[in-house]
UniProtKB/TrEMBL annotation, chain A:
Coiled coil: none
Annotated source species: Neolewinella xylanilytica
SUPFAM superfamilies the record matches: CO dehydrogenase molybdoprotein N-domain-like (SSF54665), Molybdenum cofactor-binding domain (SSF56003)
Residues annotated as domain Aldehyde oxidase/xanthine dehydrogenase a/b hammerhead: 27-141
Any one Gene Ontology molecular-function term assigned to this protein's record: oxidoreductase activity
Gene3D superfamilies found in the cross-reference section: Aldehyde oxidase/xanthine dehydrogenase, a/b hammerhead (3.90.1170.50), Aldehyde oxidase/xanthine dehydrogenase, molybdopterin binding domain (3.30.365.10)
Protein name: Xanthine dehydrogenase molybdenum binding subunit apoprotein
Automatic annotation (TrEMBL), chain B:
Protein's name in the database: Xanthine dehydrogenase YagS FAD-binding subunit
Organism: Neolewinella xylanilytica
Keyword Chaperone among UniProt keywords: no
Any Pfam family hit: FAD_binding_5
UniProt domain FAD-binding PCMH-type: residue ranges: 1-222
MF term (GO), any: FAD binding
Flavoprotein as UniProt keyword: yes
Length: 750, 339, 158
């Protein structure tokens, strides 16, 4: 009997599957970092500096101490011992430089730097007392203005993060000549201010003091392992004395990629007072750490008369702090997206008296592709070509910037499927769409690209005594759906029903996981889960081979199928060995395997590995008032295998909303005279509201990729964002003839 | 920040007596006061909670054909009140353009008048601000001033008053009925909010310890021709960058007999210029006529680095509002500001 | 310092006696005193909607109310709408439409949506979007959230 006639359960991978934590989230029973309520909890409230640069000369805390319920006030003069070396503060995501050390000394390096922590019996007492602390300073001159300091721009220092965020390749071809000879050229700038992640849950940590210097830390983080390493190394603790748990995270978007100061303060206070301590930041304090860097870009694109892109110059100047060189991959994308032969790229940093920027959803990619894809439409316009036709004319079959082939690339299918769904054939040249009342109509499109990153990760798979599957990894999930997807991968690998898989996660005592970010979680951790499950399968099979009576004969692993909690022999499907029989044979003990999946760098390096997308957008622009309405958008995504069609769609929808926000809504306003951000609240920092969101549609294009990882997945966290913002800008141009050069495009900008 | 005492009262006289004293504050919906207190911007010694005063929670007909809106009626109850919807749809629509259902369910009519500016520097306790700390300076002039005034600003202060509802109340020529230790008085709406001048710390002309009892609407409600056009930085849940409340009445020949235009987001009070409205009288509504009125209304406007665009935008908005007012039935809550 | 006030709240049908200082918000009373953490703190200033509860039949922001102001009130929080295994139709619809990602704005969205359906002011999808705009969702689940509410709203009318 052939294998195909065996009863095969419907595969989990590729189907829609509700989130395993859904019921908890919709009933308010999911517990977030600030919601653990151990006995005798102290509440910490942070005091922030009111100068931009200088030194603390005095902290007057008498009035604060008189507040009923106040237990202690901590700052640089009253704290446990902290590490001396920069290395001790370098978390997994730290860029080159000297990481900020909270409460280390009297120096103030940026406005709103945390400088004291009030601990009290109640949240209200801590907050009130914090407002009574008076700090005196010696102030130094400072500079936070990017534009005024462009002359101080310099190349970033390179560090380990350059592996994930490559620097621009050297120039190739002869840009100046090609640009000079181009039949059509476009020169322009793209600028956006800093932006803040603003997850709805404010950063918080609840630390349970376990005695003898041990702590259990409920942290808002995108990596329990990262938080554990950071806390223990900064405070000189043993790793085993710090356990970080974070099953529910109310949004990250990058804000939790580096451990933020509330975690160190919470643990420091817990150790200092030998008490349980919660520190929750307030919304204003959510603007006191990393953010998407303010970036100014200059593009010069040239094309031949027949529409071949011949010359690309892409230069970017981004803010960083005085103490770390945060950098992004901003200018590398045009050379990958388009086979252009004459390229000049430059990426420089301007150190300023601000906090270090931090990865924020689609870091670098969103910024850079925005400049590339808006420039492409300007060139198309000058060439009197349809923007889609222009891109197809310049479709890259290989990565011209490195000469490597793509591991897979279905961008062409993204273009065609999204164009069809959208009705791109109805598009008219700029300014020629029929009006709708007072509103001009514009159609725009853009391409998106993001790296498919691969890293090592470890996971454990256990066949429980009930014959069910338990998988374990320290990975945590901020809402992307990873817990569900990992369970699906495990279920398929072992042929178990989804319900028979349990996933233990978000605990640093489990197998170390990379931070959750960069769109690599499913590929990286999913491959480890798959590898662990495969190893477990192998182990189960080996026991099955030596069961009493040798029911499998001399069959090898390929000769059997794992399905429905049984091993079924292909040659004779009546031979079925339930997992429970294997457990019984194993004297009732569970079977467990841990496996580290290490990607093959030699194989990976031969290819350029990217996910791709194309967005098609319709806007209406009120001709007199300049109000922009996003009426509808279609995004098609080619990102390898889609694991869970429901949560994947949500990921892309979320990315599209972020693209809308980049194009039309969010920015943080920095006062250069005071050195501080002014709209540090959700009333004046505009994230989109429901009324801002038009009809959104998502297409997943089929794409097979055997290179990127075992699962063939490329990740979805960033790609949905990237093509949206430039598509909106291009649609505004199509409607109005106005080139959008500053983002977000706002009322008054037309 | 500070801690405070709390007292709940059930009648107006007790309320006024309880609030007498430095630092005592009336508490209505609390949507602005509690926010300000949390930001260390308001420091009440005692909050006198008015929510037990039932007599201020009523909407009643007035003998002159007008309507009395109790100070403690919530914004949502006012907006959805059948009489308001029928006779003062401009007010209903304007209220619904502001804030969110959750906030409007708590925010009261009286409190709406007392909203403080959303100037970034006012809202940051660490920044200098002449409104908060007289004489400390105004960083908004050289800083971020998108939300700020283009009319009626002073050297000391360029803040705007953020209410939507007040813009309609100005256009409707409402009266604010108040009671204080010295008794009851009526304040015409145009006299209620203050321009900053040299005393930006004073938002309005309400006397110390005076309590708003009601907002009285005159009979004329512009139910046939009106609009509230709000332009903002997102399509909902944002303060006005520029807004226009506009109403007019027509005679049998289609000529305007009475017109009212009030602007929001441009000054520290709803901006009205009666002479601009007079220009419209006797004219058939048209783009040109509203443009003339807009010129008069915006005379003397001057902006700053980030808000000069509002002068032109307000001009365009007035013209559009004039057109939209012609057929108010095309407007629904949340509708786009287009025909 | 002001002495504590003794207040009574009926939360999810259960009468609770609380001793609170005047400056304790209704949100913190729910979270810290009653350990009902389903109501979320996203800004504490009335700017995000995560703390939305239904108080005496109306949706309000619990962060902008002092607990003492609500003495004698009946409050429904997300925990009172439905629990695992016994979900409110809108909670079920949120699962069906994947109308949440991180889950942090979700209780506020659901409380707000339940009240919106009850209020009856919104008919069209555009109106639902407008009257749900007091609840921010940073993950961008917006279209799924509106889909879930429309499904329950229209179902309720059938």
């Amino acid at each position: 009997m052939s294998q195909s006639t065996l009863p095969q359960p419907k595969p989990e991978i590729g189907r829609p599957r509700r989130r395993i934590v859904g019921e908890q989230k919709v009933t308010g029973t999911a517990t977030y970092a600030a919601e653990y309520a151990p006995e005798n909890l102290l509440h910490g409230y942070v005091v922030n500096a009111k100068i931009t640069k200088g030194r603390i000369t005095g902290i007057e805390e008498r009035a604060a101490r008189e507040v009923e319920g106040v237990v202690e006030i901590m700052h640089h003069l009253r704290r446990p011992k902290m590490g001396y070396f920069d290395m001790q503060y370098s978390d997994i995501d730290a860029p080159p430089g000297s990481p900020f050390r909270v409460f280390y000394d009297a120096n103030v390096q940026f406005n709103e730097q945390p400088i004291a922590l009030v601990l009290a019996d109640t949240f209200e007492a801590a907050r009130y007392a914090a407002s009574l602390i008076e700090v005196s300073y010696e102030e130094d001159p400072f500079d936070v203005d990017l534009h005024k300091n462009l002359d101080k721009a310099r190349k970033p220092k390179e560090g380990i993060d350059s592996i994930l965020k490559p620097m621009p390749p050297d120039d190739y071809g002869d840009f100046d000549r090609a640009f000079g000879e181009a039949a059509a050229t476009y020169e322009g700038e793209v600028y956006h201010r800093s932006q803040h992640h603003n997850p709805l849950e404010m950063h918080a940590t609840t630390t349970v003091y376990e005695g003898k210097g041990k702590v259990t830390v409920y942290d808002k983080t995108q990596g329990t392992t990262n938080s554990q390493m950071y806390v223990s190394s900064a405070l000189g603790l043993k790793m085993s004395d710090v356990r970080v748990i974070a099953p529910f995270v109310g949004g990250g978007f990058g804000s939790g990629l580096r451990p933020q100061y509330q975690v160190l303060l919470s643990v420091m206070a817990a150790l200092y007072l030998k008490r349980n301590v919660r520190v929750q930041l307030d919304r204003e304090q959510m603007y006191t750490f990393g953010h998407r860097p303010e970036t100014l870009q200059r593009v010069r694109f040239g094309a031949s008369a027949d529409g071949k892109l011949t010359a690309v110059s892409h230069e970017a100047y981004a803010e960083t702090s005085r103490f770390e060189d945060y950098h992004e991959t901003v200018v590398n994308h045009a050379g990958v997206l388009y086979p252009v032969e004459n390229v000049h790229l430059d990426y420089q940093l301007v150190p300023l008296d601000r906090f270090t920027p931090l990865d924020m959803r689609a870091p670098g990619g969103l910024t850079g592709v925005l400049a590339v894809e808006t420039a492409m439409d300007q060139l198309a316009d000058r060439l009197q070509m349809d923007p889609l036709e222009f891109r197809l004319k310049n479709y890259a079959e290989r990565d011209q910037s490195t000469g490597k082939p793509f591991s897979s690339k279905e961008l062409r299918a993204c273009y065609s499927q999204a164009a069809e769904r959208f009705g791109w054939d109805q598009r008219k040249p700029t300014g020629q769409h029929p009006r709708r009342g007072n509103r001009l109509v514009g159609h725009g499109m853009a391409s998106g690209i993001w790296d498919a990153i691969m890293l090592p990760a470890k996971a454990t798979a256990r066949l429980t005594t009930e014959g069910k599957l338990l998988i374990q990894c320290a990975l945590n999930d901020c809402g992307q759906g990873a817990y569900t997807v990992m369970s699906q991968i495990a279920a398929d690998e072992l042929g178990l029903p989804f319900e028979d898989v349990t996933f233990e996660y978000a605990d640093s005592k489990l197998d170390a996981s990379p931070v959750q970010g960069g769109s690599f979680t499913t590929g990286v951790v999913g491959s480890a889960v798959k590898a662990a499950c495969f190893a477990l399968k192998d182990k189960i099979f080996h026991l099955a081979q030596i069961l009493d009576g040798f029911p499998l004969g001399d069959a090898l692993l390929p000769d059997v199928t794992f399905t429905g909690g049984e091993i079924v022999l292909h040659a004779d499907p009546s031979v079925r060995i339930p997992f429970t029989e294997i457990i019984a044979f194993n004297k009732g003990k569970a079977l467990e395997v841990s496996k580290t999946n290490i990607p093959n760098p030699i194989k990976l390096k031969r290819y350029t590995r990217n996910s791709h997308a194309a967005s098609f957008v319709e806007v209406e622009v009120d001709a007199q008032l300049g109000v922009v309405y996003l009426t509808r958008a279609v995004t098609a995504v080619a990102a390898g295998r889609i694991m869970n069609t429901q949560t994947a769609r949500s990921q892309i929808l979320g990315g599209m909303v972020w693209g809308i926000s980049m194009a039309l809504r969010e920015e943080t306003l920095l006062d250069h005279n005071m050195g501080k951000f002014m709209n540090t609240n959700l009333a004046e920092y505009h994230v989109p509201v429901h009324a801002d969101i038009g009809e959104l549609d998502v297409i997943f294009v089929e794409e097979k990729d055997d290179i990127v990882n075992e699962l063939g997945v490329k990740g979805l966290g960033e790609i949905g964002t990237i093509s949206m913002a430039p598509a909106i800008a291009n649609a505004i141009f199509n409607a109005t003839g106005k080139v959008v050069t500053q983002f977000p495009f706002k009322l008054g900008d037309l | 920040m500070n801690n405070f005492h709390y007292e709940r009262v059930t009648d107006v006289d007790t309320a006024v007596a309880a609030a007498t004293g430095a630092g005592n504050s009336y508490l209505g919906g609390g949507t602005n006061l509690i926010d300000l207190w949390k930001y260390d911007l308001a420091h009440p010694e005692k909050l006198v909670d008015l929510n037990g005063i039932d007599e201020l929670k009523e909407v009643t007909e007035l003998p002159d054909g007008g309507l009395r809106l109790g100070a403690l009626v919530t914004n949502n109850k006012t907006a959805y009140h059948p009489t308001v919807q029928e006779r003062y749809p401009l007010l209903s629509r304007t209220i619904l353009a502001g804030a969110t259902p959750q906030i409007r369910n708590a925010a009261t009519n009286g409190g709406n008048l007392l909203q403080r500016t959303r100037c970034y520097y006012f809202y940051d306790a660490a920044s200098p601000c002449n409104k908060r700390v007289p004489g400390s300076g105004c960083p908004a002039r050289e800083g971020h001033n998108r939300l700020h005034a283009i009319l009626g600003h002073s050297e000391a202060c360029i803040a705007t008053m953020p209410s939507d509802m007040c813009v309609a109340l100005a256009a409707l020529e409402a009266t604010v009925r108040v009671r204080g230790p010295q008794g009851e008085r009526h304040i015409p709406f145009a006299d209620f909010h203050r321009l900053p001048g040299e005393k930006p710390e004073l938002d309005n002309t309400l006397g110390e310890d005076e309590l708003i009892l009601s907002i009285d609407l005159p009979a004329r409600g512009f139910a046939d021709h009106h609009t509230y056009l709000k332009l903002r930085d997102r399509h909902s849940y944002a303060f006005a960058v520029v807004s226009v409340a506009l109403g007019y009445e027509l005679d049998g020949e289609g000529k305007i007999t009475t017109a009212r235009i009030a602007l929001g987001g441009v000054a520290h009070k709803p901006w009205r210029v009666p002479a601009a409205e007079e220009l419209l009288v006797g004219q058939a509504p048209s783009e040109d006529q509203f443009a003339r009125a807009a010129d008069a209304l915006l005379e003397g406007a001057s902006g700053f680095k980030h808000n000069t665009f509002k002068i032109d935008l307000a001009h365009r908005a007035i013209i559009r509002a004039g057109a939209m007012a012609h057929d108010p039935s095309c407007q629904r809550p949340g509708a786009k500001p287009s025909l | 310092m002001s002495s504590p006030h003794q207040i009574q709240l009926t939360v999810n049908g259960k009468t609770q006696q609380l001793s609170v200082r005047p400056w304790v918000s209704l949100l913190d009373a729910l979270r810290h005193h009653l350990h009902l953490h389903g109501t979320k703190k996203g800004c504490d200033h009335g700017q995000c909607g995560a703390c939305t509860v239904i108080c005496d039949g109306e949706r309000v922001l619990s962060c902008l109310n002092l607990a003492v102001m609500k003495d004698g009130s009946e409050i429904t929080t997300i925990e009172g709408l439905g629990q695992p295994g016994n979900l409110h139709p809108l909670q079920e619809a949120f699962l069906e439409h994947d109308a949440y990602q991180c889950g942090y704005c979700t209780p506020g969205q659901i409380c707000s949506g339940v009240a919106l359906i009850e209020e009856g002011h919104a008919t069209t999808r555009e109106e639902v979007k407008e009257l749900m705009s007091g609840n921010l969702c940073r993950c961008g689940a917006n279209t799924n959230i509106i889909d879930a509410i429309m499904a329950v709203k229209d179902g309720a009318h059938e």
